[in-house]
Write a structure and sequence with these properties.
The protein has 22 helices and 13 strands. The chain is of the alpha/beta class and 587 residues long. The longest helix has 37 residues. It is 53% helix and 12% strand. α19 links the parallel β8 and β9. α15 runs parallel beside α18.
């Protein structure tokens, strides 16, 4: 997990964390060198002085400067914290990973043992272990470190169990890879990012625990001192010199906050840590031009979409796509999985998250710049004039809300339509997409509808506004032929009623050619060919012809295998089988 320092200092939280870490490091490394003499030199005539400019925290019983002692104590306090955290982390990783890769019965025993340890309060375990190892700094570090092992063990077990059930881990076991090698090569690297985040947050708790043990006399002993011991000494004079106790307390609290904020920053960095200045989306102005109905519904020129590769770089998934959608036009985008079809459609709809780096010469939907952060007026236009139909409606629809509630939302929020009118519009939309008994369906939850009904309900949701563009991302996947036909008929009826343009994404070139006006063929993130469906037989690109050749018809020789487009080889060449049809497709 890497951190972009430029992004880190771009936020107030990041600046605070960076400043805090630098301050703690300086005090740890150079505190004794800069303030060591003032912290140890005795000045009996000036003992027990109050706070002043010369002594910000006052002096102790021997006249030593308390501010200097707090700074010098940073090294021991931080080193003990890091040592205790390292013990907890190492022990938790070993116990957690072992528990995750053991056979079922042994795994249950290990998990039960971890649960038993977690049932005891952490500080109680620390006190128990401190009695075993004695009231010393090393004993306190061991006590707190061992007391924290169950916390990390449970975290690691939970994370490792999800990874251990992955196919590649099972494949490693089938190949005879030892459990230890599986844990170190396959499991541990995949749980490292959340583990680092929790380690930083746990360090703040460890710091407070060390301070508590030293305050109780079970930690650092004289002549050594840490913040907890200084707090104990200052508490005796808190009514005479409050800063004697407040000073070490400030150091404990601020350092604990730095550790906690560091965990939050690492968490944010793990989710999105590659955002360049040139890729940041600007905010559009408040004015929204009213588009001409004869202008293209959507225009895309030079679209490029890249994602973080996990190693600090970017990998492009869409490269230089050009696409224009005219009013009322039906366009089909076809290609194999990973060709960039859905990413292109999501970029056109403005639905890609901050992890996507989107650049283009032009990316516009009816006058709305989709590369900008939309204002209120643009959000209203997008909510009413753009509809998105996802591949899996069961995961796209909210399982806790009724169909009627989800249908009404767009009209009530964006069109400010009264509820009764929105309900009537929802009934009309369900009737248009041929859902039987629409009044009863409004009160049902998504899981109560069949797959075809859910998909048609998604289409009806897009009709709740005034759609000018309907983007259908593989709406017929996993549906039988009869249901596919009903879904496509519902789409066609919706287009006829509203005059909307449709962008249909599919793997099936036969389905697209029977529904669309124009076909866009994508492969490897690029558009390789665009042509009207009535001119498919004039396709020039070998990949388009290969897709067509893969579709069987009534004249197909069933004694021979169907052509297959093979994966791209390292040299970039493509092979199809049978050989005679493949060579014809490539010619």
């Amino acid at each position: 997990m890497t951190i972009d320092l430029r992004r880190l200092v771009a936020t107030p939280q990041g600046i605070a964390v960076l400043a805090g870490v630098v301050l703690v490091l300086l005090a740890t490394l150079f505190g004794d060198l800069a303030f060591g003499d003032a912290a140890t030199t005795r000045d009996i005539p000036n003992r027990q002085l109050g706070a002043s400019l010369a002594h910000p925290f006052g002096t102790d019983e021997l006249g030593r400067d308390l501010f200097a002692r707090v700074v010098v104590a940073t090294r021991l306090s931080v080193l003990l914290t890091l040592g205790g955290t390292a013990i907890s982390l190492a022990g938790g990783i070993v116990l957690g990973v072992v528990a995750a890769v053991l056979p079922v019965r042994l795994r249950r025993l290990a998990s039960g043992f971890i649960d038993i340890l977690l049932s005891f309060p952490w500080l109680l375990l620390a006190l128990f272990f401190s009695v075993i190892w004695g009231a010393t700094a090393t004993g306190a570090m061991l006590a707190i470190g061992f007391a924290g092992i169950p916390v990390f063990a449970r975290l690691v077990t939970t994370l490792a169990s999800s990874v251990a059930s992955s196919d590649y881990v099972h494949a490693a076991g089938i190949l005879g890879v030892s459990p230890w090698r599986t844990a170190t090569r396959h499991v541990l690297p995949n749980i490292l990012p959340p583990l680092v985040v929790n380690t930083a947050a746990h360090a703040s708790v460890t710091l407070l625990s060390f301070a508590a043990l030293s305050f109780l006399g079970l930690g650092v002993q004289a002549p050594e001192y840490d913040w907890g011991r200084l707090l104990n000494e200052g508490a005796r004079r808190i009514y005479v010199d409050p800063m004697a106790a407040i000073g070490p307390g400030i150091a404990i609290v601020l350092t604990g906050i730095v550790f906690s904020l560091l965990g939050e920053v690492l968490s944010e960095s793990g989710r999105v840590h590659r955002v360049r200045e040139v890729l940041r989306r600007r905010r559009s102005d408040e004015r929204v031009a009213e588009p001409d109905d004869t202008d293209p519904v959507a225009e895309v020129r030079g679209l490029r979409v890249a994602f973080d590769d996990g190693a600090g770089g970017l990998v492009e998934r869409v490269r230089g796509v050009d696409l224009t959608v005219q009013p009322g036009e039906t366009i089909g985008i076809v290609g194999e999985s990973g060709s960039g079809k859905s990413v292109t459609a999501m970029a056109l709809a403005g639905l890609l998250g901050p992890e996507a780096a989107v650049t283009s010469e032009r990316l516009v939907f009816r006058g709305v710049d989709m590369t900008a952060v939309p204002n209120a007026a643009e959000r209203r236009r997008l909510g009413l004039e753009q509809a998105m139909i996802f591949q899996d409606p069961l995961s796209s629809l909210n399982p806790a809300l009724t169909i009627g509630h989800q249908l009404r939302e767009a009209s009530e929020v964006h069109a400010r339509m009264p509820r009764t009118q929105a309900i009537r519009r929802a009934l009309a939309a369900l009737t248009l997409v041929r859902i039987p008994d629409p009044a009863r369906r409004l009160a049902q939850l998504p899981h109560e509808l069949s797959g075809g009904m859910r998909q048609r309900a998604m289409i009806a949701m897009g009709l709740m506004g005034t759609p000018r563009l309907i983007i259908a991302d593989e709406p017929t996947t996993a549906l039988d032929v009869t249901v596919q036909r009903s879904v496509l008929s519902a789409l066609r009826d919706a287009q006829t009623t509203t005059g909307a343009a449709i962008v249909l994404i599919s793997h099936d070139i036969a389905l697209v050619s029977g529904f669309c006006d124009r076909i866009v063929v994508m492969r490897g993130g690029e558009v390789v060919e665009q042509l009207p469906v009535n001119r498919l037989d004039e396709a020039q690109h070998w990949y388009t012809r290969a897709l067509i050749a893969c579709v069987p018809d009534m004249t197909t020789d069933r004694s021979r295998p169907l052509p297959v487009i093979e994966a791209e080889t390292p040299t970039g060449s493509i092979a199809t089988v049978p050989a005679d049809e493949g060579s014809e497709a490539r010619r």
